[in-house]
Write a structure and sequence with these properties.
The structure holds 3 protein chains of 3 kinds. Chain A is mostly helical. Chain A is built from 14 helices and 2 strands. In chain A, about 75% of the residues lie in helices and about 0% in strands. By secondary structure, chain B is of the alpha/beta class. Chain B is globular and about 60 Å long. Classes of the chains: A mainly alpha, B alpha/beta, C mainly alpha.
Chain lengths: ~300, ~270, ~300
């Protein structure tokens, strides 16, 4: 399936996704907004895990850092929102870089463990942050201030989230369909051969980690203003696992797969929970095992069954 | 054919792994445009020597010079940047990419666009990509794999994988190329193609260092040959010199009947 | 002073549990290179099996003797470990998949186990009776709950048994051989599939016993698996992946740092939750080979 992502297609996609926002009631809007954030996170995580081959459990932690930083800068420290936003992104990027530098030296799954430890540390810091982070209760009672004279409310905020997803996808596609994306895949497939071809493995790994984690931070900022409440549990390990599962089931390394997997696994519980209660997680776990065993290309592989691969 | 000064000069190189001396006091030169064969019984130190030049290992003593500048101890990717590319003894393709992308990775050092350029969609990046694709397509045709350009590398035969290794290494337009047993597992037709490819590479002025066990393939191809045994150089010269050298024959007496194939080559 | 000595006993007991989980990782990791995070869930299963055999709270409500609980744990966990290997790991190894595939698949298995336990046993913690009762016991200056001493004693015994297995038995040497060089071991006639199956079964059994031993102190709860998996892995990294003794040392170091730190460092108690992660990071980056160097020279 070859796709020319012309500006027209982008516009149509954004408008369609935004139009949905205007046709929804309150409950559906909340679900849709959170789904959009999950899609944004899944897209960037898919690049890190599926394309760059780095198994990391820190993605939600960076979303948390982004969200909390923006809220703290803008509402606890009184910094004007645009500056708070930029500072939050910069904090995320810096932290991601600092974490990436030593972590990318680690082999395979030890990277996963280091990022897991990091994400748990972030949680502990948030939980113990006292009045600054609101501790275990989190922070509430803030609102997105008017930007450029506009008070962004209701479905218009959903449009903002659609734009975040579009931006994330756009950046990732640029990264993917380039020598950088090829370098990431080469390192994923065979790091020794990649180095022999002149790729600076450490550097590429650090850049991939830093960029995708910063995109996670951006999604986290978007998340913070959905309910105007931000608290620790959502950035925990359970969601990190779920994100990983979404990518695996959707199709590791495929942007479409990330979207499909996320939509499916995010919406499925709404359908399944009334019927099987917690059992839906058992279903997810089994799906993950089945995907790894029988269909590594995931659902996306089933949907786009074609012999020739897309050029990078 | 050969220039006055060597492109790569190996002098006094020794490499030990724990108690084992893999290479000892090895010295030889590689000139631009020549095909230099590196032969020796199993375990003689040939691949170790490759790995030393390619930066995978650092010598315990001695020096490796590229155009007069030391490259021993440099990281593999830096050595590739300096124009020395290599293939591997066992196929090491990038399994998650189609064939043409594998070759494109080989061109990495020639693509100067940075990540910022990529994100900003700079024209230079697009132009480099387009020209890189063209070059990759040419190389794929050059090694005879043009039918397979968009295929999954998992579907390649072993011989096709060997040819991919060569195409990938060439994509970077190197000054020197290290080929580690490129003919292993090739069909007769593929072998003939490969010999033509190697001659063509040397004709372009690229220095070729070639490890081979298949003497039928190597002897007509290599202008000079260096023979290793137990990590030391035991002979050096033309194919004729080397096949007549008693030390070389003795070293190979323990080998399987292949050896020199019983042929007495006079050139 | 008594305070401190009680803390020592408590830390030793916790450390032994961590050590057992680390041992479970190690038994599986060495011959297969697979990091099996589901060991935490297997410990939880062991705890629930204990409750099922020893109390009337879960079917079959046996209220039976302790030795029966031990046997039940060994049999059930051994079977589960063997089954998981057969269904999720072996097909991947046969396909020649990379080493991350089984590890990720086991994360799926982890979730399946945890949620199944929630469904079967509910969300409330279930208490498990200590075989030697709730009395306090003293060995010289060291005093603590009888269960804590049982944990320490049982752990030492288990470690001794596993150490002897690896050092002195033919199968144990086979494990070592596979760990050092898979291909050579296969060429020497060692049945790789059987070693892998045994590794998973044995690892599961050790994890199950850890859960059984800790449940009188912490109750059986479906959430207990994941923190245990993290702590056990941290203990493994601290002690070093290469040697059995390392797992024991790692567990004790982790527990002592945790509990002594919580007690004597002037920091808010919530921050003590960070200790295992700080230690994990420190050891991953600064001393990845752990405190006890592995046997083979790299």
């Amino acid at each position: 399936m070859s796709r020319l992502l012309t500006p027209v297609l982008w516009l149509v996609g954004i408008v369609a996704a935004s139009a949905l926002a205007f046709s929804m009631g309150g409950y559906a809007t909340d679900v849709y907004r959170k789904l959009l954030i999950w899609v944004a996170l899944a897209l960037s995580y898919n690049f890190l895990f599926g394309i760059a081959g780095q198994v990391a459990f820190s993605h939600f932690a960076f979303a948390g850092v982004g969200g909390y930083a923006a809220v703290i800068f803008a509402h606890k420290l009184g910094i004007p929102f645009p500056i708070a936003f930029v500072l939050a992104i910069m904090l995320c990027a810096t932290l991601a870089f600092v974490v990436a530098l030593p972590s990318t030296r680690l082999e395979g799954f030890y990277l996963a463990l280091a990022t897991l430890a990091f994400s748990q540390l972030v949680l502990v810091v948030i939980n113990e942050g006292g009045t600054l982070t609101g501790g275990t209760g989190g922070i509430a009672n803030y609102r997105l201030p008017p930007l450029l004279g506009f008070d962004i409310r209701g479905p218009w905020y959903t449009v903002v989230l659609v734009l975040i997803v579009a931006f994330t996808l756009w950046v990732l596609l640029r990264m993917d369909r380039s020598s950088f994306g090829r370098a990431c895949r080469a390192i994923r497939d065979n790091a020794v051969a990649a180095a022999a071809m002149g790729i600076d493995v450490r550097r590429v790994k650090v850049m991939a980690f830093t960029l995708t984690s910063t995109l996670a931070g951006l999604a986290g900022i978007g998340y913070a203003y959905i309910d105007n409440v931000i608290n620790p549990p959502v950035f925990g390990l359970d969601n990190a696992f779920l994100l990983l599962f979404m990518i695996i089931v959707g199709g590791t390394g495929s942007h479409l797969g990330a979207i499909v997997g996320t939509v499916l696994l995010y919406l499925a519980p709404f359908v399944l929970e009334p019927i099987v209660g917690h059992g839906f997680l058992v279903v997810f776990g089994i799906l993950v095992v089945l995907a790894i065993l029988f269909q590594p290309a995931g659902l996306a592989g089933l949907l786009t069954r074609s012999p020739a691969r897309q050029p990078a | 054919m050969s220039a006055a000064s060597p492109l790569i000069a190996v002098s006094g190189v020794t490499k030990r792994f724990g108690g084992l001396t893999a290479v000892e006091d090895l010295a030889f030169d590689l000139f631009p445009g020549e095909i230099l064969g590196l032969i020796g019984p199993n375990g003689a130190g040939k691949t170790t020597m490759f790995n030393l030049i390619a930066g995978v290992h650092q010598p315990n003593s001695g020096a490796i010079l590229l155009d007069g500048a030391r490259i021993d101890g440099m990281a593999p990717h830096r050595i590739a940047e300096h124009g020395v590319m290599r293939t591997f003894q066992h196929n090491m393709p990038f399994a998650g990419m189609p064939l043409i992308d594998n070759v494109l990775v080989g061109r990495h050092t020639r693509l100067r666009g940075t990540l910022i350029d990529i994100l900003l969609g700079r024209r230079r990046v697009r132009e480099e990509e387009a020209s890189a694709r063209q070059k990759a397509a040419e190389l794929i045709a050059f090694v005879g794999l043009d039918q397979r350009a968009n295929d999954d590398v998992a579907t390649l035969s072993f011989g096709e994988g060997r040819l991919l290794e060569v195409a990938r290494a060439l994509a970077g337009e190197p000054r020197a190329i290290l080929l580690d047993e490129p003919a292993a597992g090739l069909t007769a037709a593929e072998t003939i193609r490969l010999a033509a490819v190697i001659r063509d590479i040397a004709a372009r002025g690229i220095a070729v260092l070639l490890i081979e066990h298949d003497m039928h393939f190597l002897l007509p191809l290599a202008q000079r040959i260096v023979v290793l045994n137990f990590g030391r150089k035991i002979a050096q010269g033309t194919a004729g010199d080397v096949t007549r050298d008693p030390a070389v024959v003795a070293a190979y007496l323990g080998e399987a009947a292949g050896g020199f194939g019983g042929r007495n080559l006079n050139a | 002073m008594n305070d401190f000595l009680e803390l020592v006993v408590s830390a030793a007991a916790s450390g032994c549990i961590y050590a057992l989980v680390a041992l479970a990782y190690l038994i599986i990791l060495r011959p297969t290179s697979v990091i099996n995070f589901a060991v935490g869930e297997w410990a939880a299963v062991g705890a629930f099996v204990g409750v099922a055999v020893l109390t009337p709270l879960i079917w079959p409500r046996l209220e039976g003797p302790y030795w029966l609980a031990i046997i039940a744990v060994l049999v059930i966990l051994g079977a589960l470990g063997w089954l998981v290997e057969l269904l999720t790991v072996r097909p991947l190894v046969n396909k020649g998949a990379s080493i991350t595939s089984p590890i990720l698949a086991l994360l799926g298995v982890l979730v399946v186990f945890r949620e199944t336990m929630t469904i079967l046993f509910g969300a409330d913690p279930l208490p498990s009776p200590p075989p030697f009762g709730f009395n306090r016991v003293a060995f010289g200056p060291f005093a603590g709950a009888s269960q804590q001493f049982l944990i320490i004693g049982a752990t030492l015994a288990l470690f001794a048994a596993v150490w002897l297995f690896f050092e002195r038995t033919v199968w144990g040497r086979a494990f070592e051989a596979v760990a050092l060089n898979r291909r050579a071991a296969a060429l020497m006639g060692i049945n790789l599939r059987r070693v892998t199956a045994m590794a998973f079964a044995a690892g599961a059994m050790v994890a199950g016993l850890a859960g059984l031993l800790m449940s009188p102190l912490t109750s059986a709860h479906y959430m207990m698996g994941l923190p245990l998996a993290i702590q056990g892995f941290t203990a493994l990294v601290i002690g070093g992946v290469g040697r059995v003794e390392g797992a024991l040392l790692g567990g004790l170091v982790l527990a002592f740092v945790e509990q002594l730190g919580a007690r004597y460092l002037p920091i808010p108690s919530g921050l003590t939750l960070a200790f295992p992660f700080v230690l994990l990071i420190v050891f991953l980056f600064l001393r990845p080979s752990g405190l006890i160097a592995p046997r083979e020279a790299r």
